[in-house]
């Protein structure tokens, strides 16, 4: 036997309750409320207030993620620019291997003994 969808089961249960129409109206109402409440509990519904709160949190989170993505892109671009500047060869006198540094020449030509 195929499993019935939740609304079909709900309709069947309400119909079963209504067949006992000889019961007092309060008892019928309580029985139907129990059936409907049980069906809603199984559906795992959330209140509109909870839904609105979660949507607000989601929108703020999305905005923050977009801001962080922009910030990361800017930092990556700055890092790429800095790396390309460092990769360019420079002809400064300090970079030449033949020229002695001031610390090496400070001894007046004498070696350490």
Q: Oligomeric status of the shown chains?
A: single chain
Return residue spans where pLDDT drops below 50 for at least 5 consecutive residues: none
What's the number of extended β-strand segments? Answer: 0
Count of helical segments?
4
Strand content: under 5%
How much helix is in the residues? 55-70%
Report how far the terminal alpha carbons are from each other. Answer: 102 Å
The profile of the biggest β sheet is: none
SSE order, as H and E? Answer: HHHH
Keywords: Cytoplasm, Ubiquinone biosynthesis
Family: Belongs to the UbiK family.
Pfam family, one: BMFP
Organism: Halomonas gemina
Structure, briefly:
Pathway: Cofactor biosynthesis; ubiquinone biosynthesis. This protein is mainly alpha-helical.
